[in-house]
Sequence to fold (466 residues):
Amino acid sequence: MAKVGITETILRDAHQSLIATRMTTEEMLPALEMLDDVGYHSLECWGGATFDSCLRFLGEDPWERLRTLRKHMPKTKLQMLFRGQNMLGYRHYADDVVEYFVQKSVANGIDIIRIFDALNDIRNLETSIKAAKKEKGAHVQVAVSYTTGPVYDTAYYVNYVKKLEEAGADSICLKDMAGLLVPYTTYELVSELKKAVSIPIQLHSHFTAGIADMVLMKGIEAGADVVDTALSPLGMGTSHPATEAMVAALAGTEYDTGLDLVKLTEVAKYFHTLREKYMGSGLLNPKMLEVDTKALIYQVPGGMLSNLVSQLKQAGREDQLEEVLLEVPRVRADAGYPPLVTPSSQIVGTQAVFNIIGGERYKMVTKEFKGLVRGEYGASPVAIDPEFTKKIIGDETPITCRPADMLEPELDKLRDEMKEWYEQEEDVLTYAQFGQVAVKFFEKRRNEKYGIDGKHLNEEEKVHPV
Fold:
């Protein structure tokens, strides 16, 4: 058994899970050279919600962040999370946009692209896999969205990973985004996946239910090649098992990671100062650090749970949370048992809220839920009852082809729409995914560099918005 690789998530999924992706590039900078010196298998630092958060909340150019990370961490492979045909946005995009985004991600510094689809519909992954395979030096990791339900037995996952290897995956990630894996199931599953494919298997699980460190350990014993962890200041809770603890647990065994605990402790010291800052500002809610075994009962990811609470609070119906949590699995069953991950988790959760506060199931149906049932996001893992489909979408025709086949090339059109704001090629991709949010960012960026009329100003005259 070769040493186990560690993917560090503190620059992406860890702070996405605990503080809604609000860590700034400026806050990352003092730690980058230390992180680069650790010797990680990879550093997950981009993609997921980072792009949206940079634009919407932090006033940062996500592409500039990536270039900065690359500059300060030249020795370590940089990794991103990518939602296949959804890219980092919330709809399906035409193939020409997906291909261009993959190309630009690699050109700006990404080494490993972890690609997944919320429905495990391989058709939604094909374009991005092919695009990444064209980029010299890029590693294509395809993730399996792990969940439970009638169809999700070991045979389902074995069959799926075989298809992913055939499609061109360089490695597989078993992505347990809701923290539903338990240790002995993990051992059985990873053992069978290792027999099924010849490429490396990586394991990703959230600590929400308090057992993800045991899940990683059993996965490693079953042959997992790499695991995802987060440095302890932003580890555990709804994040990932602590990096230092995992490295210490494996030290001196056949699975030794080879990482230096002293170096990890030093870099963790810096992130402890950030943790204290986040706790003091209220950005890090102590509840996010608690063990919550309800995740195993309701199978609701941590981020989805907080969203449900927020929706009920806005409606003045917080007392009905338990009813909504019981309704979520029923809505999920009606919709063909999709894994609960972006965007399906938001779609199913919001519909469950509507079903409860409306007093009648499906009296009010969201546009997104109609789209899910119609097939706009791809094929559901279990066929949806035709009568239910008709109830939700009426006389509309269900989509049975790959949804992106219905989209015309859109890159030139998008480029034309945003030409007023163009400063770099990557701006087209930013606009493609985030529309008006991107425009507001472009406007702010221009005002910082130029006057309102667009002419260059002296340094003293520059506009510096709050």
In short: The two ends are 54 Å apart (CA to CA). Residues 426-449 form the longest helix (24 residues). Residues 454-466 have pLDDT under 50 and may be disordered. The first strand starts at residue 5 and ends at 8.
